[in-house]
Amino acid sequence: MEIFVSIDGVLRNTIQKFDYHYKDFYFDSDVENTENISDFNYDIIEPIYNDNLLDHYKFQSKEEFENFLFIEFPIEIFGHATTSYQNVFSDLNKIIYENKEHNFTILGLDHLAKSKPATLFFLSKNGFLGDNIRFIKTEDIDSMWSKCDMWITDSEKIINKCPENKDVIKFNTKYNEHFTNKKEINKLIEINELCSKFLENNTTSMLTELQKNVE
Q1: Given CA atoms 184, 185, 191, 196 in this order, what sign does their dihedral have?
Q2: At what angle do helices 191-214 and 88-98 cross, to 10 degrees?
Q3: Which of 161, 104, 112 is nearest to 131 (CA)?
Q4: Which residues of 35-55 are buried (b: 16+ CB within 10 A; e: fewer)?
Q5: Per-residue model confidence (pLDDT) at position 176
Q6: Of 79, 106, 133, which one is at a domain's C-terminal end?
Q7: What is the pLDDT of residue 197?
Q8: Less Cβ around it within 10 Å: N or C end of the chain?
Q9: Under a CB-based contact definition with an 8 Å cutoff, are residues 151 and 163 in contact?
Q10: What's the domain range around 37?
């Protein structure tokens, strides 16, 4: 079975670090930033959801947002972010080791510029032992679903694009409480039972289909 695991949300609390540096740069800095001298009102609209940060953190343009995230503070936000919970990488490494018959790939969504090497630093720093790391864009989600059987993610847009013959698991965070999914987990270790059920259901479906063909 091919299993995808999203990096942001599931493994890394990226938004928490983004929030800290947004407040520090635009609100709390003791050093006056000439870039901030304007009539624009930087603001945060709460509650904060992970569907689109631009809906919650105000920037003068999308270009300013991307410069802040991918050029100015990528190592601080992506490299030094905290993990989603304390033992998430221990759980992930254990799952990969104990389920060698399955192929696990972790994916970063919409990473640009310096956020990619910063993410690799984050994974290395936290001892990721898997073999497969991939970066994709939002427009790749449909095609990526054709390459996996199960996707573990905190993202509503990934969940909404799940085909009927695939399985998607919502990883719960404080930033995605605005929607629900049939299958949800709070820690990665909980997927062992879900994987077993998924395989059992798939095997039953295949046997049923084979029996129909024979008849």
Answers
A1: negative
A2: 30
A3: 104
A4: eeeeeeeeeeeeebbbeebee
A5: 94
A6: 79
A7: 57
A8: C
A9: no
A10: 14-79
Specify whether 98 is located in the same domain as 180.
yes
Q: What is the mean pLDDT of residues 150-179?
A: 95
Residue 67 CB coordination number (10 Å): 15
15-48 pLDDT, tens digit per residue, is 999 999 999 999 876 545 545 556 788 999 999 9
Query: Comparing C-alpha atoms, which of 198, 196, 204 is closest to residue 182?
Result: 198
Q: Which two tokens stand for residue 22?
A: 């947004």
Return the closest-CA partner of residue 53 out of 83, 73, 38: 73
3-state secondary structure of 182: coil
- Taking the C-alpha atoms of residue 92 and residue 172, their distance in angstroms, rounded to an integer, is 16
d(CA 93, CA 114) in angstroms, rounded, equals 26
Domain count, the chain: 2
104 plus 203 within the same structural domain: yes
Domain boundary among 28, 58, 79: 79
